Amino acid sequence: MISMKRKLRWIDLALLPFGLCVLFLLLLGKLFGLTYKQISVVFNLWVQGAVLALSGMAPFGVAVYKMLESFSMWWLALSAVLLIYGIAYVYAFIKMLQHYHLPFNDAYYLCVRDLKWLARKWHTTYQMVNLLIFILFYLILLGLNILICYYLYSL
Question: Residues 6 or more apart from 149 whose CB is under 8 A from it?
Fold first, then answer.
C-alpha cells in the first residue's frame, strides 16, 4: 500500500498566512464593493505603496521639525540627506504606479506575472514571494522609517 503522507516542506508554511491574506482582501473588497482583483491592486499596490512613500518622507519631516526647534548646520545637512531618502520612496511609488497602471485587470495580472517571475528566480512559490514582498518587506521598510523617526525625535 502506498502511503499518502507527504513530507511537510518549509515552503508549505506560506500557504496558511497567504490564505489568511486572501481572506482579508476578500472581506475588505466585500466591504468596499470591490472584486478580489480590484482590492488587491488598491490595497497591495496603492495603499501599501502610499503608506511607504509617506513613511519614507516622515524622517525628513521630523528633521525639519527638529531644525526649526534649534537650527544647526547638522540638522540642515541631515534634512537634505533625509529629503533625498524620502524622494527615493516617492519616486519608487510613482514608478510602481506607472508600471501597474489601470485598468484593474491589467494591473492585477501584471503583478501576478511579476510575482511568478520572482518565484522562479528565487526558487520558491508565488505565495512565498507575495508574503515576502507585501508583508515582510513592507513591514521591515515601514518599521525602519518608524525607528528612524523615533530616533530623530529623541535627539
Answer: 58, 59, 62
